[in-house]
Each structure stands twice: as C-alpha cells, then as structure tokens.
Amino acid sequence: MADRSEDVQKKAPALPSAAQVIAYLRRHPDFLFRHPELLDMQASPARHKDEQVVDLQHFMVERLRQDVAKLRANQDEIIANSRDNLGTQERIHKAVLAMLEAETFEEFIDIITGDLVLLLEVDVVCLCIERTEGYNRRPKLDGLELLEQGAVDRIIGKGRQVLLRDEAVGDPEVFGGAAELVRSDALLRLKPSKAAPNALLAFGTRHPGYFHPGQGTELLSFLGRIIEFGIRSWLDLPKP
Questions:
Q1: Which of 91, 178, 229, 239 has the fewest CB atoms within 10 Å, i.e. the most exposed one?
Q2: Worst-scoring range by mean pLDDT, 10-24, 200-214, 217-231?
Q3: By the 8 A CB rule, do 160 and 88 touch?
C-alpha cells in the first residue's frame, strides 16, 4: 500500500482545465501583459468563417506579430552593436594608455605597429609615410612603410579621413609583406604637423567584413589624433 501511494505522489499533477484557465485569466487580466511572449504562440481567431468575407482583424493581428518580431530582432541587433562598441572603446583606451607609457620615439612606433595588433585584435597594423626630399630611405622598423608622394590621397581618397573596406585585397604598398593576409582593412589619414609628411595608419585583418562602411569611425579618429599628438611631442613639431 505504501509503495502504491508513493507512485501516486510521483505522478505529475493534472493540467488545469480550459474553464480553470479562463477563470484564472479573468482574475488576472494583466497576465498576458506580463508574459507577452505567450501571444506569439497563440492562433488568432477569425471573426467570419465565410470564405467570401475577408477577415481584416485576423490580418492586422498577424501583421502586428510580424512587426513585434522585427522590433525584437532590431533590439537584439542594437544590444549586440552596443556591446561591440563598448568592447572597441575599451580596446582603444588600452591602446592609448600603452602609447602614453612609451619612453622613446622608437618604442612609441613599436607600440603602434606591434602592440596595437593584439590590443585591437587585428592581424597587422602599418604606419605609412610619404617620401620627402629630406627622407627617402626605407624605414628599418617593422610596420613602417614608405610611400611615394601623393600616395595617401590616391589610396584613401582626396579629402577623405577614414576608409573602411569589408572586402579588400591587401595592398603591398600599404601592408608590405603582410599584404597577403589582409581581406578587410581600415585606413586612417594622419597629418601630425605642417612640417611632417602625409601619413596613413592602416589596420588589416584576414576576416572579410571585419571592417565595413557602416561602422562608426569616431574611435578610430580619436586614436589617430592621439598618434598625431604623440608624433608631434616626440619630434617637437609644430601643430598643423
């Protein structure tokens, strides 16, 4: 007898009847308001069963459901983008702090072309400088590339400050020996001083779509201004 009673207790409780559900909802009219996801699981009733009559109410309910689904998808996308932006902001801040800790100009350049690769989670960072009459030798530091005069305007576009490309073939002129890795890049114009040549900061990654034209460029521009300030300070150059 004891075993039988235990078996009865282990049985799942009976589900409420339709009448009990209706009574519960009447006592709690805000239940569906507090659980709106349940509405998506319900089939909306048609007001007319006659095939000759168009049920506009049913159509409107389905349209509203589709709109709600789209709004939820947009909300999820906004949340994901916000998280990405916060992550990018944190990485940019760490990069700036790393550059501020440089003790020599060579170390400053090495942080830009080396440490930023890890801090910004890209595959290659290059600092490209146009040739001048006083300096036309190939830089000895890794990550520094020498460009012909006028190359910055040609590569990034005259008057353009930032260029983001989701599908790109790595340019050896910009990325040197690492060009074969690059499938998406971000190019940032640098003009530290009137006395300094035009320059280009290039970020490259092997993942297509990592950079794309729809992305915000404020954080990259901020990083560029910090680098310009650092170059002016280390080389004692006048402001632009």
A1: 239
A2: 10-24
A3: no
Cβ–Cβ under 8 Å, residues 113 and 126? yes
Distance CA 170, CA 216 (A): 22
Write the CB contacts of 29 (distance below 8 Å, at least 6 apart in sequence): none
Please state the pTM of the whole predicted model.
Answer: 0.65
Residues 6+ apart with CB under 8 A from 199: 127, 128, 129, 130, 152, 189, 190, 191, 192
Q: What pLDDT shows up at residue 90?
A: 85
Contact 169, 120 (CB under 8 A): no
3-state class of 124 per DSSP? strand
At 8 the three-state DSSP class reads helix
Is the Cβ–Cβ distance between 193 and 240 less than 8 Å? yes
DSSP 67-101: HHHHHHHHHHHHHHHHHHHHHHHHHHHHHHHHHHT
